[in-house]
């Protein structure tokens, strides 16, 4: 025993913790729990029980309690969508997003397949320019100008370099003193309202083209959408959205014959040009009128790839790819909230992003902007919208997808929900995270699952199957 203790003392803290876990009687069950949650990097632990019984007879249909689990607790996924926080959960979230968007384009998941025949567009809306920044365009110099002008601060407003994609200069302002940081932050803070004005303008144009009142448009057609927000290299948000026209009863009903893809394209173009939001005047920043950027793209969505549009799968995969990214992944912020000016100074940020975070903190102290809660959203540069949003009738929901997956894993053939079935549940939070050794074991499980998934993808590719990343 003395020799064993001596060898243990020579091990690292992580290795000693692994030895402790492996020798625990409940290790095999703990391992089953971690495999069931895919090696989640930040699991949440719950303690409690669930009892389902027949209301009429009192017969117990199913029951579960954590009393027999290791530590009397159950590990569940953290469900964080950010890959920088939890890779396994972000991958699962991206997969759910793919199916959610794909269902609205191709059908499935309670959405009829006839949506393939509807007018559908893939729209990209960007923020306006807040000042010239370094850019990486393949085969082109950044901002080459023969006259090599200088700004009022004496800095060159041209750049003849060929920036690669990973160049840290990409997205940085040519002159930070000339850059409109206030406008950038205010645009982020009102981006959600600007999107709402955009969708309203699309509906208004469709009603006007049909010669019907805007209030009666819903009795003729429904405009459905799903959009995802993405941070560009210049740390400005832009939106990718799928816009679809349905009949008054939703996906199952066709829109009227006059509601064509061409008319929808015209409505989107006009809404992108005319949409704006007026910010309340302030002595700190003057008068501001926020609009969309001049660079926006509208492309039709087809069932298969074509020269003038995108396929269903390509659009769904494109949207899902950006959902798993956090602000830190794109260098456009951080994945934790800023609570003080000290946090801004201590955060590992580029000078450009640090200036944006500092602007959020400064503007957040203004009474006229108190409703925007800029300090609470300084970590995301003032943008407080969800990464993915959709209209109610576009397709299924994340909750429905998770429930379907849970039923599949349980092997359920019928739902336990109903008027004759009563479920009583009592759960409480008891902790989260791992010990050092448990974290290493969980990371190994997550890696094994990722390798197995990649091998399965290769086999599918060799068999001629098409799939999304």
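^ structure tokens above, recovered residues below v
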């Amino acid at each position: 025993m003395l020799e064993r203790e001596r060898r243990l003392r020579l091990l690292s803290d992580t290795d000693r913790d692994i030895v402790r876990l492996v020798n625990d009687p409940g290790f095999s069950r703990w391992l089953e729990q971690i495999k069931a949650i895919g090696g989640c990097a930040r699991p949440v632990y719950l303690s409690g029980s669930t009892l389902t019984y027949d209301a009429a007879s009192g017969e117990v249909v199913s029951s579960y309690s954590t009393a027999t689990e290791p530590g009397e607790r159950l590990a569940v996924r953290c469900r964080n969508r950010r890959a920088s926080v939890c890779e396994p959960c972000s991958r699962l979230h991206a997969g759910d997003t793919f199916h959610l968007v794909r269902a609205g384009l191709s059908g499935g998941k309670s959405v009829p397949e006839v949506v393939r025949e509807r007018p559908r567009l893939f729209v990209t809306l960007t923020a306006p320019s807040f000042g010239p920044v370094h850019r990486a365009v393949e085969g082109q110099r950044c901002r080459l100008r023969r006259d090599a002008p200088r700004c009022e601060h004496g800095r060159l407003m041209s750049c003849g370099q060929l920036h690669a994609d990973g160049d840290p200069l990409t997205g940085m302002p040519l002159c930070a003193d000339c850059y409109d940081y206030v406008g950038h932050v205010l645009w982020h803070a009102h981006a959600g309202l600007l999107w709402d004005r955009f969708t309203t303008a699309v509906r208004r144009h469709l009603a006007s083209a049909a010669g019907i009142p805007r209030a009666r448009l819903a009795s003729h057609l429904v405009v459905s959408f799903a959009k995802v927000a993405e941070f560009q290299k210049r740390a400005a948000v832009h939106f990718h959205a799928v816009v679809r026209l349905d009949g008054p009863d939703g996906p199952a009903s066709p829109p009227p014959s006059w509601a064509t893809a061409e008319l929808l394209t015209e409505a989107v173009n006009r809404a992108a040009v005319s949409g704006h939001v007026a910010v309340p005047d302030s002595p700190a920043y003057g008068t501001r009128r926020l609009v969309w950027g001049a660079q926006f793209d509208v492309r039709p969505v087809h069932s298969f790839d074509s020269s003038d549009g995108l396929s269903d799968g390509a659009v769904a995969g494109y949207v899902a790819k950006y959902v798993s990214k956090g602000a830190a992944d794109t260098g456009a912020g951080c994945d934790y909230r800023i609570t003080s000016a000290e946090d801004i100074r201590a955060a590992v940020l580029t000078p450009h992003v640090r200036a944006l975070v500092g602007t959020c903190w400064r503007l957040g102290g203004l009474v006229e902007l108190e409703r925007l809660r800029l300090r609470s959203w300084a970590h995301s540069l003032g943008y407080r919208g969800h990464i993915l949003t959709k209209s109610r009738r576009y397709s299924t929901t994340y909750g429905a997808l998770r429930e379907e997956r849970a039923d599949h894993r349980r092997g359920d053939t019928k739902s336990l929900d109903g008027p004759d079935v009563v479920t009583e549940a009592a759960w409480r939070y008891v902790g989260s995270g791992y010990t050092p050794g448990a974290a290493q074991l969980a990371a190994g499980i997550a890696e094994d699952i990722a390798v197995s998934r990649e091998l399965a993808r290769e086999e599918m590719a060799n068999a001629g199957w098409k799939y999304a990343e």
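The first strand starts at residue 44 and ends at 54.
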